Amino acid sequence: MSLQEELQLSKLPSPGVQLMLQLLLTREAIVRVQERLFEAHGLTIQQYNVLRIVRGGPAKGHPIFEIERRQIYRFANVTRLVDRLEVQGLLKRVQDTKDRRVSRVVITPKGRRLMERLEGPVQELSDRITSCCTEEQCLALGERLEKLRDHCLREETLHPAVPEPVSI
Question: Of 20, 73, 87, 101, which has fewest CB within 10 angstroms of its CB?
Answer without folding.
Answer: 101
